[in-house]
Write a structure and sequence with these properties.
heterodimer, A: 116 residues, mainly beta, four-stranded antiparallel sheet, 11 strands, B: 114 residues, six-stranded mixed sheet, 0% helix
């Protein structure tokens, strides 16, 4: 099992540019979560999908952020336009049955985003 | 709304010493409680979880945690710390009615002195 795979590992971009982060969940997992980690705010849930359908996007900071899950094996988180305050580590996680409250979350290694 | 507080931002212990990391939650009912560990440059890994039953739960790597309803706490313990335990530790709380949302604490960074 390859685990949750995120790409890129590091992204450095200039303010105003579009950024796309990618995630491949563990095969057979039905739910996918995007988290953002910063020193100030810790780990925040941005959005999660169940069976490719967005269930709760209330954590998405603003309209500049969007996420898609076109199929069970791929998701993207897009920021357009990016701003320096978006600099953070973005994690993707998946679970087998979609109940993060009662089973284990499997995390990817994260994407370190720096917006200059 | 549920919340999690980890009052210690940094903790340093000597190798072989005992460890206790504090976690307090705010929620009206009995939540689901978790401890995750994050090694440098890595994602989070589940150490242990509490749903119901025995209030002392055992996890991986020799860690345990005790749920104390009266104190709204779920502190993580290890009797003898190893240098490889140096990492950041996150407490998280979830509840059935919140769907799949977990609320994480801000983390405690553990350093281990040789």
């Amino acid at each position: 099992d390859a685990g949750v795979i995120q790409s890129p590992r590091h992204e450095v971009t200039e303010m105003g540019q579009e950024v796309t982060l990618r995630c491949k969940p563990i095969s057979g997992h039905n739910s996918l979560f995007w988290y953002r980690q910063t020193m100030m705010r810790g780990l925040e849930l941005l959005i999660y999908f169940n069976n490719n359908v967005p269930i709760d996007d209330s954590g998405m900071p603003e309209d500049r952020f969007s996420a898609k899950m076109p199929n069970a094996s791929f998701s993207t988180l897009k920021i357009q336009p990016s701003e320096p305050r978006d600099s953070a580590v973005y994690f993707c996680a998946s679970t087998r049955t979609g109940r993060a409250t009662n089973e284990k979350l499997f995390f990817g290694s994260g994407t370190q985003l720096s917006v200059l | 709304a549920q919340s999690v507080t980890q009052p210690d931002i940094h903790i340093t212990v000597s190798e072989g010493a005992s460890l206790e990391l504090r976690c307090n939650y705010s929620y009206g009912a009995t939540p689901y409680l978790f401890w995750y560990v994050q090694s440098p440059g890595q994602g989070l890994q589940l150490l242990l979880k509490y749903f119901s039953g025995d209030t002392l739960v055992q996890g991986i790597k020799g860690f345990e945690a005790e749920f104390k309803r009266s104190q709204s706490s779920f502190n993580l313990r290890k009797p003898s710390v190893h240098w490889s335990d140096a990492a950041e530790y996150f407490c998280a709380v979830g509840m059935k009615s919140s769907g799949d949302k977990l609320t994480f604490g801000t983390g405690t960074r553990l350093a281990v002195r040789p």
